[in-house]
Amino acid sequence: MPEESMAAVVPPLAPPTEPRFPPYDQRLLRNGLTVAALRRVGVPLVEVRIRLPLLAGKPKSRARADVLSETLLAGTERQDKVHIAARVQGLGATLSVDSDDDWLKISGSVLSSRLYDLLELVAEVLSGPTFPAAEVTGEAARLAERIRISRSQAGVQAAEALAERLYGTHPYGLGLPDPGEVSRVRGAALRAFFAAKVAPAGGSVVLVGDSEPQRLLDSAETALSGWTGEEGAEGGRAKPPRFRTDGPLLLVDRAGSVQSSIRLGGPAPRRDDPHYPAFQLANLVFGGYFSSRLVTNLREEKGYTYSPHSMVTHHAACSQLTVQADVATEVTAPALLETHYELGRIASLAVSQSELDDAREYAIGSLAVGTASHAGLASTVASLLASGVPATFLVEHPARLRQVTVDQVLEQARRFLAPSRLAVVVVGSADTVSDPLHALGSVERG
Amino acid sequence: MWCSEGPVAARWCIGTPLAVVSSVVTSPSFPVARTTLDNGLRVVVSPDRSAPVVAVAVYYDVGIRSEPQGRTGFAHLFEHLMFQGSVNLEKLAHFRYVQASGGTFNGSTHLDYTNYFEVLPSNALERALFLEADRMRGPRLTEENLANQIAVVKEEIRVNVMNRPYGGFPWLWMPEVLFDTFPNSHNGYGDFVDLENATVADAEDFFHRYYAPANAVLTIVGDVDADEALGLAGQYFGDIPSRDAPQRPDFAEPDLSGRRRSTHPDIHAPSPAVAAAWRVPNPMDLAAYLPFVVLNEVLTDGDAARLRRRLVSGDRLATALSGYIGLMGDPFDVRDPTAYVVQAHHPSEVGVDRLLAAMQEELDALATHGLEPGELDRVRNRLTADLMRGVDGVLPRALSMAVAEQQRGDARLLERMPELLRSVAAESVREAAATLQPHRCAVLEVVPGGGPSDA
Question: Which residues of chain B form CATH 3.30.830.10?
Answer without folding.
Answer: 33-237, 254-448
